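Progress report, Aim 2. The chain analyzed during this reporting quarter is listed below.
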Amino acid sequence: MVNYRYLGNSGFKISEITYGNWLTHASQVANDAAIATVHKALDLGITTFDTADTYANTAAEEVLAEALKGQRRESLEIFTKVYFPTGPKGTNDTGLSRKHILDSINGSLRRLDVDHVDLYQAHRFDHETPLEETFQAFADIVRQGKALYIGVSEWTAEQLREGHALASQLGIQLISNQPQYSALWRVIEGRVVPTSAELGISQIVWSPLAQGILTGKYLPGQPVPEGSRATDEHGGSEFIKRFLRDDVLEAVQRLRPIADEAGLTLAQLSLAWVLHNPNVAATIVGASRPEQLEDTVKASGVVLDDEVVARIDEVLAPVAVTDPERTYESSPTTRLV
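Predicted structure tokens for the chain:
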């Protein structure tokens, strides 16, 4: 079964393996297959589910709602997000303005068929909206009982500090950041993680397997497997391109002996590496087939000793991205429409 961790400086616990439906629900797989993977996640002890209004232009939230129908609401932790364009993608259908936030939370609750979400996240930083306006809207949502906690995604250390200060002034809790993080993409370690640890903010990380690269299924000098993320035209192929280099793929293959010695698959080793970071509360995994989750959940509770972590770091050091300046690339300087 899956272990739990506290989220930020709060009494709220989430499953350290969290199920996410970014590129799967209403996109890569049929709805019945998506529902089957959610049911498998529940069977395996995952109770935390992460989605966003922008995933499949709101359809992913509806699929998740269908999959969770009949479950005890109090036994689930449901997260969603706001920022990216949704619906007809009009002038006010994007960003973190008060109007878009309030319209979006009501839409998400309707699609998810719940009266509140446990965590409501700013999917990116909005450079076009005063931060005070954004956090006042978040505070109103919390006081209305539509969200219990507030989080963000891909914010810089400076943005986290400013947001945390405003949240504290308004009497609400900013407890999480959701960045990309893996043994190959480590840009948050330099500034975001130390700032978050100081402020009582946890990381809920996405792409812990570097879009599947760290499973070892992509081989140097070989064509990408049919039906893999690298062939996905719904967006997955764009994210994985940066890692589809022979030097990266060769380094990943050199992790196999380390995984074998630990009695783990490469995927389990890579997830355990992410969870070794004490500032990480959860790692988000997705699945297109239920059986994929049976492998990944076994990373929960695995404790890698410092020597094993050091060996992994040494193997990947020549190809891992660590520059903290890369954290400033995530939020668009103007809203997307």
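The longest strand covers residues 77-82. Residues 85 and 94 are 4 Å apart (CA to CA). These observations will guide the mutagenesis work planned for the next reporting period.
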